Amino acid sequence: MELAKKQTATQSQKLMIFVLTMALYGLATLFTELIPKFQVGFVEFSVEYFLFIPLTLAMLFDPLSAALGAATGELVFSEIMLGQFGGLGELEKFLTVTIGVYIAGRMVKNPKNRKMVGLAAITGTGLQLLMGTVVDILKVQFAVEDFEAVAGLPESVFATEGFAFLNDLLFSGILFCLLPTLFLVPKLYGKIEPLLGMSPRDEKTGLGGINGKVVIGAVVGFAAAAAAELLASSGTPLIEWEAEWAESGSALALGMVVAAAVVVVALVILKELATRRNRMEQQ
Amino acid sequence: METKMKKKLSENILDKFSIDFLRSQVLKNAYGNDDTVIAGLDPRILLVWYLFLGLVPWFVNNLWFLMACFLLVLVTTLLARVAGLVLLLFGVGVFTQTGYLLIVSFFFGGNASTVIPLLILTLKVATCSLASVTVFSGLDPDKLSNGLMWYGCPERLSFSISYAYRVLPMLMEEFQNILLSYRMRGNPPEHETFVGKVKYLIYQVKVVMHAFYPLMLNTAKRSRTTVEALEIKGYRYAAVNKTVKKMKLATLKVTYNDLLFLAVSFLWISLSLLASTLF
Predict the structure, then answer these.
(1) Interface contact flag, B217 A175, Cβ < 8 Å
(2) Where are the domains of chain A?
(3) What is the pLDDT of residues A9-36, one digit of tens each?
(4) Neighbours of A249 (CB within 10 A)
(5) d(Cα B52, Cα B55) in Å, to the nearest integer?
(6) Which fold is adopted by the domain A2-234?
(7) ipTM above 0.90?
(8) 3 state DSSP class of A234
(9) CA distance B31 to chain A (A)
(10) What is the pLDDT of residues B200-242, one digit of tens each?
(11) Residues of A with CB below 8 A from B82's CB?
């Protein structure tokens, strides 16, 4: 009964979906990091998005596990493994990918309905891209001091970010998200679920469409993403603090230097003593 | 004659940039340098160090301080002997984040005054990413995930890190095999003319997309096996059990080297603060 009521009932099946999405999307994002991009005029041709993988899986399986798996996979495979981890700022990408994939997954009640699959795929991609663009513009505005004062910078930021958004949505979005998802979802439907020991999703076993709860969750998530990114790039409190102690700052900094030097010397001596003691004990 | 040379050259470059090359670079990055100074340090200490250098530069706009931080992480990156591919990606990444902004702002009538804010932004980005290169590429994955676990990161994250490094070479090999089998059975369009080249590109992209179909099915099977093996070992119970965690983390140990590393970094940073107040 339990199994029939909900789409993914057991915890271990959720873990399976998580591992599956993480491994596949991680591999794909690793390729996108490594494949060189090439430009024809103003249009950038890049295999930016293998987002069709988590989109497909979120439509077939439990959307939340797939969304979290995709975000974690990207974080671990392409950011941590290649040493590109950007600290707090990565939270933004993590949350936007999760929200985009989750909403796309929730939209599809019946994976056999092609129209809905296509609509969900492009919505999920568009959401993710739009959130990224908004946060990017805010980020540059906060990171650069006197944003408005720098000649030509505001226009260039809006122009490049806006163009990148349209380019990504129309090129990568359609070619690498919409078409592959439309191809893969019907093909995998009914074939991949038994491999994880579940029954395929249909009208009855689906989680139900988007409701107020999902929207509120998404908005809160986006706010957290934007806040994290801005916190990572804004710097108002510390700059003021710096100006305040600038007068007596030299003395304080000198004190810090002396203290650090003393600690370094003390540690070197302690280490020397310890190695000597070890040698004595060995003899 | 010349065209032949050209063809050979491009083939040579493509050969170098194959999946095998990527695999070996990733593996080298993960496991190839565990005898460096950085790899010998305690992961907890390194994470604290990273937390400072990954966050604080964002909040400071002083050029002296940023320069000092950048030099410090540059030295540690050299000490960690990071794989070349990662450094290349770092360079490209920094350029695409701020370098192109400079060029575009010149188009919109920018001048020399645009350079200083962008230099500060570039230094910030470069410092943070080099600090992360040091910590996340310098440490081997098991140590890293242990360190993260000690700080109470979700068990899923440290599991994902250990799992990712182990499963990635296998996945890459499988993906390559699928691609090769498609290539053997397929009939690629002629690609002498321009139209043919475009058709060939579309064909290639299509093959990559199609290759994910068997890969998804195979990985689904594999992930079921993985999770079932984990269940047999009581993974979900162990993940939240305190005694198991304690046993797992018993190998972590702070030595004089770790403290020395922290102290030298601190000395360098405070020197830069002194310089920033004096000049």
Answers:
(1) no
(2) 2-234, 248-282
(3) 578 888 889 999 999 998 888 877 766 5
(4) 17
(5) 5
(6) Arp2/3 complex 21 kDa subunit ARPC3 (1.10.1760)
(7) no
(8) coil
(9) 11
(10) 878 887 888 888 899 999 999 999 999 899 888 888 787 778 8
(11) 83
